[in-house]
Amino acid sequence: MFKQLRKANQNDCLLITATLILLVVFNLSLLSYVQGQQKAAQAQATGFSRTLKGEIKNALTLSTTLKELVLASDGKVDNFSTVAKDLLAENTAASNLQLAPKGKVTEIYPLKRK
């Protein structure tokens, strides 16, 4: 009877040990998966941040260029359409440009959406 009880205890210990090992493996797998998801989300956020930073830089470049152009020409820009077309071709941050010296819009390029 004691031999059977000892054998049952050994079997129970093996079963408990196997269960604990499986739980540890499952938890490590789950932890690895969650960390991978977090890294992927962080990489996506970083990529978006870099893209946004580039777009802001492009928009500021356009604004600064137009400001200098307006200041240099006392608010009148000859061939504004040509200048605006070239600026928009180089910078994708904007879809149109407006010339507004003293807050009054005097020129818009393009006049219609393409």
Question: Could you characterize the architecture of this molecule?
Answer:
By secondary structure, this protein is mostly helical. It is 72% helix and 5% strand. It contains two helices and two strands; from the N terminus they run ααββ. The chain has helices at residues 2-72, 80-90, and strands at 97-99, 107-109. It has a two-stranded antiparallel ribbon with strand order 1-2. β1 and β2 (107-109) form a beta hairpin. The longest helix is centred in the N-terminal third of the chain and has 71 residues, at 2-72. The radius of gyration is 33 Å and the shape is rod-shaped. It starts with a helix and ends in a 5-residue tail after the last strand. The mean pLDDT is 82.
Can you describe this structure in just a few lines?
It contains two helices and two strands; from the N terminus they run ααββ.
Radius of gyration: 33 Å
Percent of residues in helices comes to over 70%
From the N-terminal CA to the C-terminal CA, the straight-line distance is: 92 Å
Show unreliable segments.
none
| Largest β sheet strand count, sense and barrel closure | 2 strands, antiparallel
Number of helices: 2
Element layout with pairings:
Elements: H1 2-72, H2 80-90, E1 97-99, E2 107-109
Antiparallel strand pairs: 1-2
Which keywords apply here?
114 residues; mainly alpha; two-stranded antiparallel ribbon; 2 helices
